Structure formats: structure tokens, C-alpha cells
Amino acid sequence: MIQNLINYFKKLIPIDLDSMVLESSEDETNVYQKYGVAAAAGTAVALFSLFLMAFLIATGEVQLDEIKTRKIVDIVMPQRDPELLDSVERPEEAEPEPDQTPPEVDIENIDNVLDDALNLNFKFKAKRQGVFADGSYVPIFQVPPQYPRRAMERGIEGCVLLEYTVTIAGAVSNPTVIKAIPPNLFDRAATRAALRYKYKPLIRDGVAVPVEGVRQRITFVLESAEKGPGYIPANCVGQM
To answer: Which of 78, 123, 125, 176 is least surrounded by CB atoms within 10 angstroms?
Structure first.
């Protein structure tokens, strides 16, 4: 019956079924052959890759040289206790050089000095409780003034008349310029010198008392072989 159906369809459709069956079987065989060749080639390539990777790993190992290390020693500074200086020596101060031509000072007391000014009275009276005897004030230390540089460079000489108070300690206070020749040239130097004077204070009834209105002339003279100790500048003669 099946054969009859086949023959019937062959008549309706002019197709050679036998040839188609044969061709399809041949195509399947070719496909199988192609897949087999591809599978074999892929397997070969995979195996070759595995062997190649194993070879590279086996022959590509690199032995690293041993790295030499050096240890750096830590340097630690020893701790020191701070040293305390008990005393510091101060450098000696250089003394100022004196002027090449120190002035000659002629100091004269304008006030009338008592006759016993230079004769110190060391006699004590029984009724006096103090240790000082009565006596006039006496200069015991007088400093020569510093010659002004401007006057020295110009060769100017002169004099200054001062008035001041001798205190109970024998010091000089409130020096005032009464007259100066030439004016305003030697005033400051004379005043500074007078402030350094020291006196034996005036004693009355065993007690030191201040003396006001003491006048003193200070003369400024340039050094010269022709000028004696009592030399007075010409511009000061008869002026004070």
C-alpha cells in the first residue's frame, strides 16, 4: 500500500525521490566529515597550545638574584644636660683716650675764704655732741673740664664764672653761669666739671650746713710752652 502511495505521488509530482534521498545522505556524510576534521584540528590546536604553554612555563622561570640588604644604623645623639653659667665675664671696656692737649685750669675762688680755710680744726669742745669741728668748706677734689672740640680746632681760649651751692654732703648743686667769655662756648664743659667737684662741707656747731652763692672761675687755656701756671687769657683779664 505504501508503495502505491509513493507511485501515486511520483505521478503527481515529477520528483525523483530516490535521488533526493541519495543526495541528502551524501550531504550528511560530508557534514559529518567536515565536523570530524574540525574537531580533530581543534583538539590538535588545543593540545599544541597546552604543550607550548607548559614548555614556556618550564623554560621561562627566572631566578631572581638575591638582593643584598644593608641595615642602616640609627644614629642617636646623646642627651646632655644644659650647663648653667654661674657668672659671665664682661669684656673690659676700653678707656677713652685723653685729649692730646688737656686744658690748664686756673681755679680761683671768688668768695672771700676765711683765714682758717686751709687749717682744719680738729679740736673738740665738751658741749659738742658731734664728731665734726667748726670749719669752712674746702675744695678737696676738682676735675679739669674737657676742652670743647670746636674751640680747640679754632684755637679759642676763654673762661666761665659759675655760681653754685655746696651741699651738706660736700657736693655741688645748681651750677649757674654768671658770665662766659666768649658766650655759649665753654658753658656746658664748665658746668659738667663743676658738678664733679667735692668739698669738705661747712660745719657749724658740729652740724654740716649748705653754702649757697659759691662762685668759681674756670679758665680754658690751650697748652703752650710760653704759658705759665697762672696764665689767664687776654680776653678774660679784668673781666671777672
So the answer is: 78
